[in-house]
Amino acid sequence: MSSNPCARRRPPAAEVVEDADGYHFYFEMAGIASESVDVRVEDGNLVVEAERKRPEWSKDAEVHLSERAYGTMRRAFTMPEDASHDGIKAAYKDGVLEVTVPKRPESKPFKIKVEFEN
Question: Using one digit for the tens of pLDDT, what is the confidence trace for 62-114?
């Protein structure tokens, strides 16, 4: 009973949610060391990269099953036209990386007060 434990590249599963204030990108990245996470805006794209390293097994260990993906994970999304490059935040908690991209203030709807004359 043996499975090839070679590294496999797989993009992290993602969700993109829009609300009135911005865009929230969620990436499943369990088991990622914080120093390997790279989030950047490049050529109009939000780029997320990270590396999951294979554990160091002892020399006499025999891997019977290996379904976890190891190696570099990369995901890129075109930035929405109304997205602001200022104020982008990234936070990692419980195996999920959340990147919050605010909308430009001028792109948000706003209410105009109507003045009534008597």
Answer: 999 988 888 899 999 999 999 998 999 999 999 999 999 999 987 666 677 88
Backbone conformation region of residue 94, classed left if phi is above 0, alpha if psi is from -120 to 50, else beta:
left
Q: Are 50 and 73 in contact (CB under 8 A)?
A: yes
At 16-50, the pLDDT tens digits run 999 999 999 999 998 888 889 999 999 999 999 99
Does domain 14-54+63-104 match CATH 3.40.50.720?
Answer: no
Distance separating alpha carbons of residues 80 and 71, to the nearest angstrom: 29
